[in-house]
Structure formats: C-alpha cells, structure tokens
Amino acid sequence: MKKTAVFLLVLANAVFFLAAHGLEVQVEIKSPLVLSRSVYEGGIALAFASVVVFGPDGQEFQNGRTDRQGRFVFYADRPGQWTIVVDDEMGHRREVEVRVFETDEKQAVALDPVTGAKIPAWFRMLFGVFLILLLSALLFLWKKNRETRLH
Amino acid sequence: MHLSDGILPAGVSVAGQVAALALVTLTSRKLQSREIPRMGVFAAALFSVSLLHFPLGGTSLHPGLYGLAGLILGRRVLPVLYVTLLFQSFIFQHGGLLALGFNTLLISSGALSGWLLWDFLKLPERTKAFSCGFCGILVPAFLVSCLFLLLDYGKGMVFLLTLYLPVAVIEGIVTVLVCAFFRRVQPGLLLR
Fold first, then answer.
1. Using CA atoms, how far apart are residues A34 and A86, in angstroms rounded to an integer?
2. What is the ipTM of this complex?
3. CB contact under 8 A, A40 and B182
4. pTM of the predicted protein model
C-alpha cells in the first residue's frame, strides 16, 4: 500500500512545473485602441479564437477572431465598462471586463474577475492537493469514529 | 473537456447540476472509512494530472486518466470526480462552476465506461486496461462533440474526435502501465 500511495502522490506532483490550460486574457491600451492577448495558462496562444466585444451599453460592439499570436484589437470609442468574450470553440471561454476612462490620454484597466490568477500555478496545485487530502483525512476520521461508535 | 460557463444554456447547466448531485449522493451511499484514503489520493492525482497540457490542433489538450479512475474506484468515481472538478474550477478556473454538474456527468461517462469495460470484457488484462484508458477519454469527447453539434457550437465532431484520438491512445498506454504496476505491488487496488 505504501508503494502505491507513493506512486499516486508522485503522479499527483509530477506536474509540479506545469500549469493548467485555463484561459488568460491580457489587456493593454494603446490609446485609443484596446489590445487583448489571449493565451492558455501555460502560455500557448489562442490562435484564431472567436472574440466578441460588448460595449458599455451591453450591446455587441464588434466580433472577430484573434490572430496567430492570440491578439485582438478594437477601438473603444467611449468611456465605460467593456466586455471581451474569448472562446476557442473547444469549450474554453473567458470573459474579461475592461474599464475605459475618459482622460487626456485614454487609459484602460482590465478588471479580471479571477483575482487568484496571478498566484503561481505550482502553488495553486499544491494548495489544491493539500486541501483534497485534508478533506479526505477529516472525512476518514469522522467516518471511522462513527463506525467505532456503531460497533 | 471541461466546459466553461456561458457555453451551455443556464437551464441545461442547472439540470446537469441537479442530476450530478443526485448521482453523487446515490454513488456515495454506504461509503466505508477504508475506501476514503484511496478516493482522496486518487482525487489529488486526478486534480493534478489534468494540469499537464500540450498544444495540439491550435488548442491545449490534457490527459484525464478517467478510465483508470473508473476501473480503480468503480462507482465511487462519481463523488471523486465531482470534488476534483470543483477544486479545478475554483483554483484553476478550469471549467465553469455552473457547468460543474454537466462536466461531472460528461467526464464520469468515460470513467464509468472504463469501469464497465474492466468488469465485463473477457480479454487479456493489458487489452482491457488499454480499452479502459482509450474509452475513458473518447466517450466523453464523443458526448461533448454531440452536445456541440446540438448547440451548433464548435469546430465539428470530426475535428474534436480526431484531436482527442492521440490523447486516448496515450491514456490507453498509461492505463496499461499503471495497471501492470498496481498488479505487481498492490493487486487489491484493482477491482478484479
């Protein structure tokens, strides 16, 4: 059993240096253009993925596809909260909100809804494994206690 | 394979969540304490292995080991997959939270077909193990492509299945190797 547990834990941690393939959309402003670059979390570009941009009024403003490097550009013609929806048509989809301010020089702030996205992937993986094992241990102790009391 | 939120209609996602929770409850009945460590360690292994990703056909694919999970955990694979997908969704935004139920149903179709193949196929163990690993990824891929066809979404069934074919072969080989390892060091871990 010990060897098996070690094997499964090695399997669980064999991907220490790898990352998930969740989507990441990086946004920057080149006044007055909003540039987005979509990548899978491991850094692979979302080439030719579908992009839909919704304006501050919630209406579709523009649609198109990313280029080979996962880039997409649009002209934000008014201030407000814009939404960029990137979809690779394989089941992976990400919405990013971008706030465009009316200033001397337009500035965009990407409001990424996922605040944990900047924590390194290896740390998040270890955290997940730890939580799963902790929950299993607690469930095991509770069940064991219950079984002992019943017998 | 992990559908993000916004792809399925909300009603379908909610129905999937209800169905998945019902199945998870059903398959968790009469759970004994001695089963929990194996389920926990396997959940941790499944959680991390799907973080392995490689580029193919303009997208990013990952292994899942769903067939292997099915043949080792049997019906207990459902609660394990639900928890694993929940953690993947929370920690890695890998699949949507609303689509969690539907994702569990899709992926457990592969795991359960692995379990059934392992139990009912009268073939040499290596062939059985390969079939489990192969179908463990290809059955959900087939169902996903059917779903995409119904939703008029995606790049088409042939494209999706062709993309997952090499992953299925790799999973088949890995399942054979892991089964051979378990047979040698811990035969009791395999269902039969």
1. 14
2. 0.86
3. no
4. 0.82
